[in-house]
Specification:
2 copies of one chain form a homodimer. In chain A, helix 5 packs across helix 6, helix 6 runs parallel beside helix 7 and helix 11 runs antiparallel to helix 12. By secondary structure, chain A is an alpha/beta fold. Chain A has a 7-stranded mixed sheet, sandwiched between helices. A two-stranded antiparallel sheet of chain A has the order 7-8. A two-stranded antiparallel ribbon of chain A has the order 10-11. The first copy, chain A, folds into 2 domains: 165 residues, Rossmann fold (3-Layer(aba) Sandwich); 184 residues, Dehydroquinate synthase-like - alpha domain (Dehydroquinate synthase-like, alpha domain). The longest helix of chain A has 19 residues. Chain A is 47% helix and 16% strand. At the A-B interface, helix 4, helix 5 and strand 8 of A face helix 4, helix 5 and strand 8 of B. Chains A, B: InterPro entries: Dehydroquinate_synthase, DHQ_synth_AroB, DHQ_synth_fam, DHQS/DOIS_N, DHQS_C. Chains A, B: Its EC number is 4.2.3.4.
Chain lengths: 355, 355
């Protein structure tokens, strides 16, 4: 698989990438290597990673609890304190080995540790491979508000190795797949049309699909790294998705939704709004709804759940001047951004999603 | 007083600067202005600031508790939550009105709020005017370890208005003065020689002295904004100073030292080491010790205090490969950096400081 050169770093594919990683580490005078991972990856991914790590740089492993509920400042403080106790300095480098929680949080920790050290991402979930670890968005949540604390910071290297996916649960694979569907919906109709019938997809060549998604994401990010404009399209499904995700995350009576599952729901609702406010054909909306619900089912939402979820919309990073702004589809494969949307229309979209 | 243009922003002097601030705010499409201050400045500085603020941008004031002990992640989380509740968005701007604690922490909060918004510094203490607010270092402490979490981020504008100093206690003025002495010691012998006899200094033209210090700091920072090399000289006195400051900060039986007071102590100790490891004449060391102790007195340190303070040296950001590195003086006005120093020599320096 061909590697991808971004403006700031290389995205390397496959097991042969570790050789380059070792060379990079050995040649850049790092004093120490910190490997940040969670307890799941520690068990399932780290032995393979370490057996493939050809470096002379002394390393330490820092393990945190898994899950979105741990992607918070307190966890960062604990990791930073540990790095300080282990004599981390400004010539240290951090490698994240994990899913989106670890790559998001690890990138943030590296960016603020002693005002910034280098980092490298080794995503181990499908979602992190196709989305979270690419493009330099780092961050943590605050009181359930998603990624409201963070920085834009590019890794020095990114390795995508599908071997990590072998131990991943089907639910996690499906969650990552939602971001791939999103890439198709906003940017590449052929890609979406191939992916939407999941039964016909050739998972034997999942790496090629991941590669295609990364090319799309990188194309968008390169044009607008700090999300002043175009990059917002990567947030399709995320305005409503994040709101529902935050509500579920902070409500003890709810089983936490995976990010990709929330985005799948959000994409249906925002496709509904797209037929109202943008140029999406009703038939395309119905097809999107059918395709996504065939894969993800329907999340059970009471009227109260809907109203409570809407409370989280005010924290969306695309808002300005007090208004909610969505990414919408003009057609499958073509998106627009900064479209003002009313809460009423979002409620209609959620009701259409449920019925 | 002539304004100073840095590579990224302007440093404006005097009361007439607020006109430019208002124009800047009105012309840059900000949705909301957050003013971060502490309860002391809220009382003494904010009425004057607000009466001079000619802007149409809607603003909110966020007040935190004063003091270094509040320059921590928890305070940042509280401020960020408040900004989110007050409908802060990516087009918001934050203005810090306060001393070094507020400018350090406010710059950090702005840099991580929704992955970064603009900020402007209005330093109200002498220390923040000559040092903390200039040069783009932002950050907070963790468990007493100074500024170990932060980013390099430049403000959009900086206003230095000596009117704020009128309500400042003498102890605070003296603390800021230590950083001015430092600027002389590392970079400008004439400046140091003028400042060292504080009885002869013309405080009627304090603004001119502040201006001179800012020119020195800016000259250094411009050559090395991210402290890869030269900028380290601004840390003269800070290796030992930060260690003692952290020990006092985290020890309930100690009255907290102001940052400038700790740096004054550190400069004497590091001048002692300079005569041992660099080319500083013994007589110059004795003169520096005499001058600084005439202004700041001698901080009382027991043998236990010394040993406990030394424990904090391992967290210094200039360390690498496990060794402590100091900025030393070859002579008054000329400094070198990255010099490896043993704990034994630091103990000797502290004992010389005490005797």
């Amino acid at each position: 698989m061909e590697n991808i050169k971004t403006e700031h770093y290389d995205i390397l594919f496959g097991q042969e990438a570790y050789g380059q990683l070792g060379t990079y580490l050995n040649n850049n005078g790092y004093s120490k290597l910190f490997i940040l991972t969670d307890s799941n990856c520690y068990e399932h991914c780290l032995p393979y990673f370490l057996s493939n790590l050809p470096t002379e740089v002394p390393f330490e492993i820092i393990e945190v609890e898994p899950g979105e509920e741990n992607k918070v400042l307190d966890t960062c403080a604990g990791v930073i304190q540990t790095m300080l106790e282990l004599a981390g300095d400004r010539k240290s480098i951090l490698i994240t080995v994990g899913g989106g929680v670890i790559t998001d949080m690890g990138g943030f920790i590296a960016s603020v540790f002693m005002r910034g050290i280098d980092f490298i991402n080794i995503p181990t979930s499908l979602l992190a491979m196709v989305d979270a670890s690419v493009g330099g968005k780092t961050g943590v949540d605050l009181n359930g508000i998603k990624n409201c604390i963070g920085v834009f910071a590019m890794p020095k290297m990114l390795i995508i190795d599908v071997n990590y996916l072998e131990t991943l649960e089907a639910r996690q694979i499906k969650a990552g797949y939602a971001e791939m569907l999103k890439h198709g919906l906003i940017f590449d109709a052929n890609y979406y049309n191939y992916l939407k019938d999941i039964a016909n997809v050739d998972f034997g060549d999942l790496q090629a699909l991941i590669h295609h998604s990364v090319v799309i994401k990188n194309t968008v990010v390169t044009q607008d790294p700090k999300e002043q404009g175009l990059r917002k399209i990567l947030n399709f499904g995320h305005t409503v998705g994040h709101a529902v995700e935050s509500y579920f995350l902070t409500n003890e009576s709810k089983q936490t939704l995976l990010h990709g599952e929330a985005v799948a729901l959000g994409m249906v609702v925002e496709a509904f709004i797209s037929k109202e406010l943008a140029q999406l054909y009703e038939q395309d909306y119905l097809n999107i709804k059918h395709a996504i619900q065939s894969i993800y089912g329907v999340v059970d939402l009471s009227e109260d759940d809907i109203l409570n979820s809407l409370e989280w919309l005010k924290f969306d990073k695309k808002n300005y001047s007090g208004n909610i702004r969505c990414v919408l589809l003009n057609k499958i494969g073509e998106s627009v951004y900064d479209i003002e949307v009313s809460k009423e229309l979002i409620i209609s979209g959620l009701n259409s999603y449920l019925n």
